[in-house]
Amino acid sequence: MHRRNATLFSHSLLIVTLFALTASAWQPPTPESVAALRLPREKLLCYRAEDGTIADVTNIDQWLQRRSEIERGVITVMGFLPGQEKKCDLAMEILEQVDCGRYLRRRITYMSEPGCRVPAYLCIPTELLRSEKPSQAPAILCLHSTDQQVGHGSVVGLGAPFHRNYASELAERGYVTLAPSYPLLANYQPDLAVLGWESGTLKAVWDNIRGIDLLETLPFVKPGPVAAIGHSLGGHNSVYTAFFDDRIAAVVSSCGLDSYLDYYDGNPEVWMPERGWTQTRYMPRLASYRGRLEEIPFDFHELIGSLAPRRVMIVAPLGDDNFRAASVDRIAAAAREVYQLYDKPSHLQVLHPDCKHDFPDDAREAAYRWIDQTLLGDRDRR
Question: Are 290 and 296 in contact (CB under 8 A)?
Fold first, then answer.
């Protein structure tokens, strides 16, 4: 496997950070420092050679050098991902169990770090618990959209709009699903500053990584790769988490992204502090790029390309007024060059359902089959 595991990756990020940032409080990057960091946005298959010049990527080793530049850009905005020093006993607690027929829904919490307990729903197919012989199934991380009322309950069908209950639907198909809450939504209000996080985005990534750690401890979860699926906030949360954790073999992002340059057509009002991407629960540092979005040191075509050759499906409705379908096509066209480098162009797919900001039935069914093909091979799960 060409990528490092999550622990080694986090240690490498720490090393890069120590070279790139001082030990004092973080300061917004200057235009000069960003210019030195940012490789040509319009060309993904390029890298910085040893002599400092920019050269074309012609092999995977060179691409991995390019990916390290993307990692550095991500650190600049999100902060660095910690390593073992942030881990603690997961100490899962089961608060409630509901028999939903084909699966059991458990309301749980787990410790993602000292001083922080994450609320989550764990759905377990009943056949895994009732069989005479020990039985296991693959696991899926199900990440919810923005919901201030029920939060992660939306993906298990609790008080949510239609088309959001993918955690319960996937459990009915035989998967173990875990749906952690996103920081600063609904009843999950961690103090990010006290806990030492520089962005809510990276805190969410950490909670998700620890959620996968939890899944690996459960006797009814099949060892091996997992998938991640999410709508809107959950859509980009899935991409960010997969960028940092290569245990995620398949990603489904519904209504979750377009280029930062295209977000609301580049309207500077949405890049004010505590608006859109700059909110505390996302990446506050992005506010410093207002008026110069082209200098943001990473974008989604780089993130999606960085997931190659893993399987990624992007659902981009034609009528989505939040994330632009045409921008998604440009992102996919750029990222697909990396998939071509791995000789896996079919591992990146884009769907354009004719709807607004939604995850309709036919798109969810296609997403589930995409996950089936990844975690189960070509066998039909249903």
Answer: no
